[in-house]
Design goal:
The complex is a heterodimer.
Chain A (H helix, E strand, L loop, with lengths): L4 H13 L2 H26 L11 H18 L3 H11 L2 H6 L4 H31 L7 H27 L7 H16 L10 H9 L7 H7 L5 H33 L6
Helix pairs in contact in A: 1-6, 2-3, 2-6, 3-6, 4-7, 7-10, 7-11
Chain B lengths: L2 H25 L1 H28 L2 E2 L2 E2 H22 L1 H9 L15 H6 L6 H21 L5 H27 L1 H4 L3 H10 L12 H10 L7 H9 L5 H25 L6
Antiparallel strand pairs in B: 1-2
Helix pairs in contact in B: 2-6, 3-6, 3-7, 3-11, 4-7, 7-9, 7-12
The chains are: A mainly alpha, B mainly alpha.
């Protein structure tokens, strides 16, 4: 464990070098929340019933806001860094180090998540809490959410690592990342809760690992589950996917290392 | 040289350099597919959200489903055109002043701005955005049984052009700030991000946000105003569209020139 603290420190230092990225993340999240919130407010205004897929307006607003914030916290830049190292050939140096590369990447990504959570998420949250009526969660919800959010970090890391490792296969990792960003965000429920998706689409989303990144944690936070068993089911699905993705990433990493060819120099 | 001859020369250069970029596209076909496909997916996600909205209500803020799609499609036309021709400005904002490489564009026998932009025309993402926008606009117009008057047909391309100029001018303006601050990437990014609001009817938003998007960062004129005119025949804001376009382009050019005058070589 101790071997990985330098990686965490380096990740944090690298991030603080580019402080402007915090501003960029904040503006992106604020705009995305704004578009969605105004859109759904107009929908509620045009309906007689005050519920949409079981959500009332303040709860849906809370969902939309926290979905962007969770997305922000999961944006740990691992995909960018890994594919960058592969493209530049720096991966050769990383292979020489006596540590597990995926674990070192996880250690470097964690402080990025924490910094985003404190420096970006808190101001954005405060801004919207000031502007709009939100739903306050229960203590049980917060507790379940904490466990679930931790698992969502592992799932998000697994997805990003796999995307980063795609750098071994294609050079246009930027394009892969654009595709990943929109598809993952959509099926994670970052744009719209899964409860509002039409049947077949929701079924697809439930079958994919991405729902454990946003929709799962927020359902636990906002109390949108059936009793204790329902809550346990959400957490179990998350845990299963977290383990599966970790295993998949480990296999992909082994296969990638076997493929690697670096120009000597 | 007369202004006409100058314009002809730049048109010829643009044509020639675009042809070079097409060569590049055919060379890197996977890049093109990923770039264009990525934007297509983004638009599909946006349409999916609009679909979900209209499963719940027949209209939002007075707009029907296909009208919202028309607006979204139309907003992609100037965006795509702008992206095809001016994405080099991102590089200026990010690093050209910082690493001192900007001088390269000053020693060529064309206007420095053209020299910068022409380094890469026809960005594949822009091509994808333009085609997606055109298809979506067409699809929505078919379903709306939209019949445009002769004046609307004549004005439509001009409105797209003005929208493109507004976007390009905003981008030039924020990228030029780099001449003072060495890197203006966050400012440019933030300004560009707010443009995401323009893909939906502005009637949805709080009046203060609407005001901001009309008069401060005039994204309203790139999609909402022209689409309201083509769909509903609203003409009240149209004169302003031309005033804002002209004013913004001039402002951007003045700031650009001031910035270039300030630029100093790194000396190495």
């Amino acid at each position: 464990m101790k071997r990985y603290t330098p990686f965490a420190a380096a990740g944090l230092q690298g991030l603080l070098q580019y402080r402007s990225t915090f501003l960029i993340s904040a503006v992106t999240a604020t705009t995305a929340v704004g578009v969605q919130v105004f859109l759904w407010r107009a929908v509620y205004a045009g309906r007689d019933s005050g519920l949409l897929g079981g959500y009332d307006l303040p709860t849906l607003t809370t969902y939309v806001l926290l979905a962007q914030i969770l997305g922000l916290v999961q944006a740990n830049r691992v995909d960018e860094e890994v594919s960058g190292e592969v493209q530049r050939g720096d991966i050769a140096v990383s292979l020489l180090r006596p540590v597990s590369y995926p674990a070192a990447r996880f250690a470097a990504g964690l402080p990025v998540s924490l910094a985003n959570a404190t420096l970006v998420a808190v101001p954005v949250l405060a801004l919207y809490a000031f502007l709009l009526p939100l739903t306050a969660p229960t203590w049980t919800g917060v507790l379940l959410f904490a466990c679930s959010a931790a698992l969502s970090l592992v799932i998000g890391f697994g997805v990003n690592l796999l995307v980063g490792l795609a750098g071994f296969v294609t050079t246009n990792i930027w394009g892969v990342r654009v595709v990943k960003d929109s598809v993952v965000a959509f099926f994670a429920g970052q744009v719209v809760p899964l409860a509002l998706m039409p049947g077949p689409l929701a079924a697809v989303a439930h079958a994919l690992p991405f729902q454990g990144m946003i929709d799962g944690p927020l359902r636990l936070l906002l109390g949108r589950y059936d009793g204790l068993l329902g809550a346990a089911g959400i957490l179990a699905a998350q845990l299963g996917w977290a383990l599966a993705l970790t295993a998949l990433a480990a296999v992909a990493w082994r296969a990638a290392v076997r493929r690697v060819e670096v120009l000597g120099g | 040289m007369t202004p006409l001859a100058t314009a002809a020369r730049y048109a010829r250069l643009t044509w020639h350099l675009s042809a070079v970029s097409v060569h590049r596209l055919t060379e890197y076909r996977m890049d093109f597919l990923l770039g264009a496909g990525g934007l297509l997916l983004r638009v599909i996600c946006q349409i999916a959200v609009i679909d979900m909205v209209f499963r719940q209500v027949p209209r939002i803020a007075g707009w029907h489903y296909h009208e919202v799609l028309f607006l979204l499609g139309f907003s992609l036309l100037p965006r795509g055109l702008d992206r095809m021709f001016t994405d080099q400005l991102w590089i200026l904002a990010r690093k050209l002043v910082q690493n001192g490489e900007f001088f390269r564009y000053l020693i060529r026998p064309v206007h420095p701005l053209f020299s910068l932009l022409s380094e890469r025309f026809l960005y594949p993402d822009g091509v994808g955005e333009l085609l997606t926008g055109a298809a979506l606009t067409w699809y929505a117009a078919e379903h709306l049984d939209l019949s445009l008057s002769a004046a609307q047909w004549l004005l439509a391309p001009l409105l797209v052009l003005c929208g493109t100029l507004i976007l390009a001018a905003l981008k030039t303006l924020f990228a030029s700030l780099a001449f003072w601050t060495t890197s203006s990437f966050p400012a440019l990014y933030a300004a560009n991000q707010l443009g995401d609001f323009s893909g939906y009817p502005l009637d949805l938003y709080h009046p203060s946000l609407r005001w901001l998007l009309t008069w401060l960062l005039p994204y309203a004129f790139t999609a909402y105003v022209p689409a309201s005119y083509l769909l509903h025949g609203h003409t009240a804001m149209l004169p302003w569209l031309f005033v804002v376009t002209a004013g913004l382009v001039m402002l951007a050019l003045v700031v650009w020139h001031r910035g270039v005058d300030r630029y100093e070589m790194t000396g190495s």
